[in-house]
Design a protein that fits this description.
Aminopeptidase; 26% helix; 5 helices; 10 strands; binds coenzyme A
Length: 196
């Protein structure tokens, strides 16, 4: 399962090169990117809940937040989290021993989960996770990437040039939540970069 580990270290205020992709990326903290494992599940679920309850509350009301995180309560939907880590391409960002973000690719072309730790927002973590997912999609010769993106994450997906296909209303536990069906065409002759 484990493929490779990148080590990204910010030493100056200038953008530096990622030695794996050759891409110039601004890095504001030191973290590594690795494949997710079953052992990560408890920490991933906690990060998911903490991020939604603290970061997404700016865009969703209390009932919507409760419905969104309901899958993680009382062991509910344990199987779907297990299936996610087994069947999807999962990348985890780690700072020391702490997981600071994770992102998952389903069926090679659909971004499913995409969350950064509430205390590590705007440090370039999602950007690095995104490049890892897009490069995996390219490796699989996919031609499009899709995602169902929250209001909160929509602002992030402008930079890698996703387009909104539709606004959607998703019903969870009887509560309506708005998100956006987003899509991006990818060219397999290029390496991923957030400047595409
Ligand atoms: C969306 C999310 C993953 C972004 O993670 P992040 O690590 O903070 O993003 P980055 O630091 O890589 O941001 C890169 C760029 O995206 C844009 N961006 C990211 N978050 C933004 C925000 N809240 N508002 C405006 N622009 C934003 C900016 O251009 C940013 O560059 P800058 O910081 O130099 O201005 C994170 O905010 C998050 O976890 N959100 C809540 C979870 C969620 O809704 N997940 C999606 C489920 S579908």
């Amino acid at each position: 399962m484990y493929v490779r580990e990148y080590r990204l270290v910010r030493q100056t205020d200038q953008p530096v090169s990622d030695t794996v992709t050759g891409m110039e990326i601004e890095m504001r903290c030191e973290f590594t990117i690795r494949r997710g494992e079953l052992n990560d599940l408890p920490e991933l679920k906690k990060l998911f809940v903490d991020t939604i309850t603290s970061i997404c509350k700016a865009d969703y009301d209390a009932d919507q937040i409760d419905a969104w995180i309901s899958d993680t309560k009382s062991g509910a939907n344990r199987q779907s989290w297990y299936d996610m880590i087994i069947n999807q391409f999962v990348l985890v960002a780690q700072y020391g021993i702490k997981i600071v973000g994770f992102a998952t690719l389903d069926d090679g072309n659909h971004i499913d989960l995409f969350y950064v730790h509430k205390d590590h927002q705007r440090q370039g973590i999602a950007s690095r996770l995104y490049v890892g997912l897009e490069n995996e999609a390219r490796r699989q010769h996919q031609t499009i990437l899709t995602a169902d993106i929250s209001k909160t994450a929509r602002r992030f997906f402008i930079t890698p040039k996703f387009n909104v296909l539709a606004e959607q209303v998703v019903n969870r536990k009887g509560v309506d939540l708005i998100n956006y069906k987003m899509i991006k065409s990818i060219d397999n002759n290029q390496t991923a970069s957030n400047q595409d």
